[in-house]
Design brief:
Layout lengths: L4 E5 L2 E4 L6 E3 L2 E3 L6 E6 L4 E7 L3 H17 L7 H17 L1 H12 L3 H22 L7 E3 L5 E3 L7 E5 L5 H15 L2 E5 L6 H13 L6 E3 L4 H9 L6 E5 L2 H13 L5 E4 L5 E4 L5 H13 L11 E5 H16 L19 H16 L3 E4 L3 E2 L5 E2 L2 E4 L6 H4 L6 E7 L1
Parallel strand pairs: 9-10, 9-12, 10-11, 12-13, 14-15, 15-20, 19-20
Antiparallel strand pairs: 1-2, 3-4, 5-6, 7-8, 16-19, 17-18
The structure holds 1,4-dihydronicotinamide adenine dinucleotide (NAI) and the ligand O=C(O)/C=C/C=C(\O)C(=O)O.
The site of 1,4-dihydronicotinamide adenine dinucleotide (NAI) has 27 residues, from helix 7, helix 8 and helix 11.
Length: about 400
């Protein structure tokens, strides 16, 4: 990883953390309050960096800068093809820094380095390129109203957009939100999750290098109830987009309704079922179920963590799933042989362990796993329960951890 590598995590080198301040109007600045917060390396539980703690005053400043940038027209009135060109440059810069960016999400969020480097970061660049291509194809419609009259529609940028990002896919979800916003000609304030603020600040730096004008993309790191709430209730934010828990999604919608009735996009939790019938290829189904439940340590909104298996193949499915779970390697997320790193933080770690305890006390059978592992950090064994009943919490709640619940059906 070159000369910048100075520290170690799980025995591997990680890059120097260069950006820890808020990014407002094209500059890295301290929070108005001067406060900072710690971001933790989940492989060790130790402090990785101190990051500026933005709150309402910083959000106000960032929104004002985003408004000024919108009103000056430098971005919304730039031709779509020119905006697309700048977005393409940003995509190229992301490709060039893939290793460093992947290392940041790995140390900050416990994500697998190889997955982030070879899957997520390229997907972020692809997402930008896709929307860069769309930037000059934002069409309206022409309607013939009568022989004398025609009506037409124009699509216009909505204005200043607020984005609130979770910690499970800090890069992917940053670009799922930021790319279409840039393409449409909007300006924005992004609030990354407090657990994983580092890559967003690096993206802000790259955005400036790519030529995105000052004030178009602002990043305010900080906590949900302060910075996040200030963004969603802001009177001068024209639209808010949020990915995270259902509980906070409700708060965001309420804040939007109570302030300026801004439109809201929410991407929330889930408890996706997999339904596996007797005629399925059992080996393939076992592999897919394992990936579906344990991918990204189960920290994904589409985790297929409740699995219904038809009675004819149930016993075989259970036996093979137990074998496969045992070969699923948990450990240092920089190690290419490892399948699963640590949960993102102590809170999630404890929450997942408490669901496991709940499953046991509710009468489900613990087939494999069920414990924390490793000498330090927030690691949990891939865990499978059988004999799960519909009304158990482990079959109802989004666990957001490596826990699979198996249920037999006729
Ligand atoms: N759909 C998804 O991808 C995600 C789902 N979750 C679910 O939520 C559970 C709890 O995780 P948390 O980190 O507590 O999620 P969360 O919903 O609290 O956090 C997500 C984002 O919302 C912000 N936020 C928190 N409170 C806010 C508020 N009052 N106003 C505006 N923004 C606010 C946070 O700072 C973060 O940026 C997880 O166990 C999981 O079940 C969590 C993260 C992502
Ligand atoms: O598209 C992906 O690779 C991952 C997306 C994850 C989410 O949207 C989520 O967990 O909320």
């Amino acid at each position: 990883m070159g000369e910048e590598c100075k520290r170690t995590s799980g025995g591997h080198e990680v890059p120097e953390i260069k950006f820890t301040k808020l990014f407002i109007n094209g500059e890295f600045v301290d929070a108005v309050s001067g406060k900072t917060f710690e971001t933790i390396d989940p492989t060790t539980g130790e402090v990785l960096a101190r990051v500026a703690e933005g709150d309402k005053e910083d959000i106000d400043l960032a929104v004002k800068m985003a408004r000024d940038a919108f009103d000056c027209g430098c971005w919304p009135r730039m031709s779509g093809s020119q905006r697309g060109k700048i977005m393409m440059r940003l995509a190229d810069l992301i490709d060039q820094h893939a290793e460093e960016l992947a290392a940041l999400d790995c140390v900050d969020g416990g994500k697998l380095f190889s997955h982030v480097k070879f899957l997520e970061i390229p997907k972020c660049a692809e997402c930008l390129r896709y929307f860069a291509g769309a930037a000059d194809k934002i069409h309206g419609e022409t309607l013939k109203m009568s022989s004398e009259m025609q009506a037409y529609t124009l699509r216009e940028p909505v204005g200043v957009v607020g984005h609130i990002i979770p910690w499970n896919f800090p890069s992917t979800l940053f670009f799922y939100k930021v790319s279409p916003t840039l393409a449409a000609g909007c300006t924005m304030v992004v609030k990354p999750a407090e657990q994983t603020p580092l890559s967003a600040l690096f993206y802000a730096h790259l955005a400036k290098q790519a030529g995105i004008p000052d004030g178009v993309l602002n990043v305010v790191t900080g906590f949900g109830p302060t910075a996040g709430a200030a963004l969603s209730s802001h009177m001068d934010v024209d639209k808010i987009s949020f990915t995270g828990s259902t509980e906070v999604g409700r708060l965001v919608m309420e804040a939007a309704a109570k302030s300026n009735l801004k439109p809201v996009s929410l991407e929330l939790g889930g408890k996706s079922p997999l339904i596996i019938f007797d005629d399925a290829d059992v080996d393939m189904a076992v592999d897919l179920a394992r990936m579906s439940s344990f991918y990204n340590k189960g920290e994904i909104c589409v985790a297929g963590s409740r699995i219904y298996v038809q009675e004819g193949i149930y016993d075989e499915f259970v036996r093979k799933s137990a074998e496969k779970a045992k070969s699923w390697k948990v450990g240092d997320p920089f190690d290419p042989q490892v399948n699963q790193g640590p949960q993102v933080d102590k809170e999630q770690f404890e929450k997942v362990l408490s669901y496991i305890e709940h499953g046991k006390s509710a009468g489900a059978t613990l087939l494999t796993g069920g414990k924390a592992c490793g000498e330090r950090g927030y690691y949990i064994e891939p865990t499978i329960f059988t004999d799960v009943k519909e009304d158990m919490l482990i079959a109802q709640d989004e666990i957001f951890g490596p826990v699979m619940s198996l249920m037999k059906f006729k």
